[in-house]
Automatic annotation (TrEMBL):
<dbReference type="InterPro" id="IPR029066">
    <property type="entry name" value="PLP-binding_barrel"/>
</dbReference>
<comment type="similarity">
    <text>Belongs to the alanine racemase family.</text>
</comment>
<feature type="active site" description="Proton acceptor; specific for D-alanine">
    <location>
        <position position="83"/>
    </location>
</feature>
<dbReference type="InterPro" id="IPR011079">
    <property type="entry name" value="Ala_racemase_C"/>
</dbReference>
<dbReference type="InterPro" id="IPR000821">
    <property type="entry name" value="Ala_racemase"/>
</dbReference>
<feature type="domain" description="Alanine racemase C-terminal">
    <location>
        <begin position="295"/>
        <end position="426"/>
    </location>
</feature>
<dbReference type="InterPro" id="IPR009006">
    <property type="entry name" value="Ala_racemase/Decarboxylase_C"/>
</dbReference>
<dbReference type="Pfam" id="PF01168">
    <property type="entry name" value="Ala_racemase_N"/>
</dbReference>
<feature type="region of interest" description="Disordered">
    <location>
        <begin position="1"/>
        <end position="29"/>
    </location>
</feature>
<dbReference type="GO" id="GO:0008784">
    <property type="term" value="F:alanine racemase activity"/>
</dbReference>
<comment type="pathway">
    <text>Amino-acid biosynthesis; D-alanine biosynthesis; D-alanine from L-alanine: step 1/1.</text>
</comment>
<feature type="active site" description="Proton acceptor; specific for L-alanine">
    <location>
        <position position="316"/>
    </location>
</feature>
<dbReference type="Pfam" id="PF00842">
    <property type="entry name" value="Ala_racemase_C"/>
</dbReference>
<protein>
    <recommendedName>
        <fullName>Alanine racemase</fullName>
        <ecNumber>5.1.1.1</ecNumber>
    </recommendedName>
</protein>
<keyword id="KW-0663">Pyridoxal phosphate</keyword>
<feature type="binding site">
    <location>
        <position position="182"/>
    </location>
    <ligand>
        <name>substrate</name>
    </ligand>
</feature>
<dbReference type="InterPro" id="IPR001608">
    <property type="entry name" value="Ala_racemase_N"/>
</dbReference>
Length: 439
């Protein structure tokens, strides 16, 4: 789901709920209503601390709480997906927070991401599922006890070769294509792949401990393809078993299926977005309704404040002109920092701290800068704090609001926050904060 280019309209397609009507589907009840006030954010807003041009604050307690809530609700082990720098939240601190919250496994796409976890001393089970077919990185992964998701006969060849050369037994989960048609062993190839793996297992080269697949329409829980993929998955498990394999961990559910399809929890769930407290089914339920706490806040400061007269054009192409005399604020962030240029004229930010207000982003979003209309009576000054997006508890825009403004999904908003934005992590418990920047 995270890689689709546009969100599907769950409300239309599951045919059960016209947009705007209350949720009546199979959403699992939240463990506790999300009445949480983000003390951390409020403290930050009041404190007036230096935020530079901007930075990302990640509430690791929210990550841990989300994971423990998912584990409690599903009753099965949770594999927390931390690929793509933990959806922009910071790979290692988030991995530790997820484990502290009760995650049994971590999941990444690329082998490099898995190796980075090991280099940071994270020794929990890690599954990496996007192999290239090259043997060298596979050998490095085997040395670090990384479980590999094999999704092509070439991967199987590479893994068997690396296991034979290194003397390390390769722990494998077979990824099968049940209808997403992205990666995953083609069902037509599965019997042969299963035979090869069974032989390699008998030779002591591999151990096939799991089987998984990924859903195309999980954000439309009643879309017919979900059941078709689930049935195809059962058939794939049978094929592996008939070949003599015993994959103990069957997993199919991403965040949306974890939250809406308890029948698909199987032996383990594999949520990503929900770990970060964002709703994978925004047309059906908010994070609060799902018992999730958004973890990420993007903060900045006004870098310039100026008065302009009615009719003055603003930013490139003068795509917006002031309708009245007004006060403009300059945000020292732009599309290089992950604010999509496509939000021009549609996004808002929060100014004024606790008890503040939303103001519109006006004119073109530029590479490093964006302009906001503070309104004719604005009292803000250079250096005043801006919350670009956050959990939404004070009224600030959320990642979902930015996604709607950009015509995309919240996954893309958080995962594309720019690398020049420093990340800070707050939280307590077992989480170690050694990656916090000095300023
Ligand atoms: C194979 C696989 N499993 C699980 C996930 C997590 O998905 P989500 O963030 O929708 O929970 C992803 C992300 O796209 C994925 O590629």
């Amino acid at each position: 789901m995270a890689d689709v280019t546009a969100r599907t309209d769950a409300a239309d397609l599951d045919g059960t709920r016209p947009p705007g009507t209350p949720v009546t589907g199979t959403l699992l009840p939240a463990a506790s209503p999300h009445a949480h006030v983000d003390a951390h954010l409020q403290a930050d807003l009041g404190a007036g601390t230096d935020v530079g041009t901007g930075h990302v604050v990640v509430d690791l307690d929210a990550v841990a709480t989300n994971v423990s809530s998912l584990a409690r609700r599903t009753g099965v082990p949770v594999l927390a997906v931390v690929k793509a720098d933990a959806y922009g939240h910071g790979l290692v601190p988030v991995a530790r927070a997820a484990l502290a919250g009760g995650a049994s496994w971590l999941g990444v796409a690329q082998l490099d991401e898995a190796l980075r976890l090991r280099e940071a001393g994270v020794d929990a089970p890690v599954l990496a599922w996007l192999l290239s077919g090259d043997a060298a990185p596979v050998a490095a992964a085997l040395r670090r006890q990384i479980t590999l998701g094999v999704s092509h006969p070439r991967h199987v060849e590479a893994v068997v070769a690396a296991a034979r050369a290194s003397g390390q037994v390769a722990d494998l989960h077979v990824k099968v294509d049940t209808g997403l048609h992205r990666n995953g062993v083609d069902l037509a190839d599965l019997p042969a792949v299963a035979r090869t793996l069974a032989e390699a297992e008998r030779d002591g080269l591999v151990a096939v401990s799991g089987v998984f697949s990924h859903l195309a329409w999980a954000d439309s829980p009643r879309h017919p393809t979900v059941d078709l993929q689930a049935a195809a998955f059962d058939g794939a498990v049978d094929v592996l078993r008939e070949a003599g394999l015993r994959p103990g961990l069957r997993h199919l559910a991403n965040s949306a299926a974890t939250l809406t399809r308890p029948d698909l929890h199987l032996d383990m769930v594999r949520p990503g977005l929900a770990v970060y407290g964002l709703s994978p089914v925004p047309d059906l339920a908010t994070p609060a309704e799902l018992g999730l706490r958004p973890a990420l806040t993007l903060r900045s400061r006004l870098a310039h404040v100026r008065r302009v007269a009615a009719g003055e054009g603003v930013s490139y192409g003068h795509a917006w002109s002031a309708p009245t005399d007004t006060v403009l604020g300059l945000l020292p962030l732009g599309y290089a920092d992950g604010l999509p240029r496509s939000t021009t004229g549609r996004a808002e930010v929060w100014v004024g701290g606790t008890g503040g207000r939303r103001v519109p982003v006006v004119g073109r979003v530029c590479m490093d800068q964006a302009v906001v209309d503070l309104g004719p009576g604005a009292r803000e000054d250079v250096g005043d704090e801006v919350v670009v997006l956050g959990p939404g508890l004070l009224g600030e825009p959320t990642a979902e609001d930015w996604a709607v403004a950009a015509g995309t999904i919240s996954y893309e908003i958080v995962a594309r926050l720019g690398s020049r934005l420093p990340r800070r992590w707050s939280g307590s418990g077992d989480v170690v904060l050694e990656e916090e920047p000095a300023w």
